[in-house]
């Protein structure tokens, strides 16, 4: 796998339409993705002392976090609205190589901060709800 630029790792929010159109959340300087999975152990006396796990079982989730400079874009406003109303929305992560991950997410954290005579910045966290599709 070739190295990819971090600036090409983009978070996009859906417009609520059908089909969904995605807009890049402007101002993000950093983005992080975590794929999480819980395991289901099926270890028994027949395991020979080794732990055995059940494939395909357990709960999987995707967590996304980001931080950036507030620009007042429409996509940032939609994320803020989603956070305030506690609703799920469609989000997409896109990567330089063309791969995407798309799913429904809940904004679990949205923080704004700013220094006197400096820019306003924000951090956000998203948690998946349902399947996240990689294409």
UniProtKB/TrEMBL annotation:
InterPro entries: GTA_major-tail (IPR022344), Phgtail_TP901_1 (IPR011855)
Pfam family, one: Phage_tail_2
Protein's name according to its UniProt entry: TP901-1 family phage major tail protein
Organism: Stakelama sediminis
């Amino acid at each position: 796998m070739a190295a990819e630029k971090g600036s090409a790792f983009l978070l996009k929010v859906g417009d609520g339409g059908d089909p969904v159109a995605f807009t890049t959340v402007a101002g993000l300087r950093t983005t992080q993705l975590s794929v999480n999975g819980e395991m289901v152990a099926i270890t028994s006396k027949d395991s020979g002392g080794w732990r055995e796990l059940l494939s395909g079982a357990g709960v999987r989730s995707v967590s996304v976090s980001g931080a950036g400079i507030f620009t007042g874009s429409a996509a940032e406003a939609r994320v803020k609205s989603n956070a305030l109303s506690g609703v799920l929305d469609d989000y997409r992560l896109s990567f330089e190589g063309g791969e995407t991950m798309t799913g429904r997410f809940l904004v679990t954290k949205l923080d704004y901060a700013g220094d006197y005579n400096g820019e306003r910045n924000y951090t956000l966290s998203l948690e998946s709800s349902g399947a996240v599709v990689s294409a």
